[in-house]
Amino acid sequence: MTRLDSLCELICDTSIDYSYFYGLARICQNIQRLIIVNVTPKPNCGIAKLIEVQKNLKHFEWTDNFDDDYFTDGPYKEIFFELERKANNLDHLELFFLYFESFDTIMQGLLPKLDKIKTLIINEFSFINENLLKMLAYNDLEILNIDYITIDEASIIIENSGGRLKEVSLKPCDFLNYEDDFSDDSLIFIRKIYKNCPLIEYLSLAFSPSKDHFTEFENLLKICQHLKSLLLITSNIHRVRETEEKIFENGKELLKILIRSAPTNLRELRLFDDFKFSLEALKEFLEKWRGRPALTVLTSDSIYQDVDYQKLINNYKNDGVIKNFRYESIMNIENLNFKI
C-alpha cells in the first residue's frame, strides 16, 4: 500500500478483471498518466472507478485493439463519463476507436470541457457538429493530430486556439480526394495557420497549385519562422488531369518559393507522388540550398529512385546539403511522428 499510494503512471489493458481495478482505486489516487489498451468490447466498471478517484489525472490514452464483431457502448459509456468529470484537468488526450456510432454523445460532452488540453490526438472527428465545433476553445493547445477531419473543421479549431500550436498533423490526402470545396477551403486553411500559429514547427498542408495558393504559402513561410517539418501535397489531380509538364512546372515554382522564403529552421520536407521535380529543377534547388542546414526529404514517388536522380542526390549528400532522401510509404510520410 505504501508503494502503490505514490503510483503516478499506469499502463494496462481491459482483459484484467474489474476487481483488481477496484483494489487499485482504494490505494492509488495520484495517477497522472493512465494508458489503456481496450482488448475486449465489454464493459470494465473497475476502470471507471479507478478514473473516478484520481485527484490529478493529466494524461489519458485509450486504444481499441480487438477483433470481436459483437459490440455495444459498454466499453465506453461509464469510463468516459468519469473521464468527462476529470476533463478540465487533462493536458494530454489520445484516443483511437474502432467504433464511433455509439460514441457521439460521449465525445460531445467531453470535448468542450478540455480547458487545459495541450495535446489532442484522435483518429476520428466526423461525429462532431458545427455548433459544438465552434465552442471548442483550446487556448493551451500545442499538438493537434486528427486523422479524419475536414479542412474546414480543422480551420475552426485552429482559429479558436490560443496561438501556441506547434504541430498540426492531419491527413491532407483525404482533403484532395473527398472535399468538394477543397480549393477555397485550403486557401482559408493556410491563412488560419499563419495568422494563428506563429510557433508552428510541424505542419501537414494540402493546396491547389494556383497563383493565390502559392502566394499564401509563401506568406506562411515568411511568418512561421519556427517551422521544422513540412508535409506538402500541391497537385489538384482529382479534378483536372494535369500534364506531366504542368506538374513539373508547379514543382519548380514551389522550389523557388522555398529558396526565397523557407525559414532557417526548416529541416524536413515530406512529399507525395503527385509532387514532382525535374532533374534540372531539383539540381538548381539543392545548389541554392547549399550553406543551409542539411535537408531530409521523404517522398512516395519512385521517380527519385531512378539512376540519374540517385546520382544527383548522392552528390549533394556527400556535400552535406542533403541529410537523407528516402522513398517511403504514404502511411509513414503522413505520420509526422515517423522519423528516420
UniProtKB/TrEMBL annotation:
Domain of life: Eukaryota
InterPro entries: LRR_dom_sf
Protein name: F-box domain-containing protein
Source species of the chain: Rhizophagus clarus
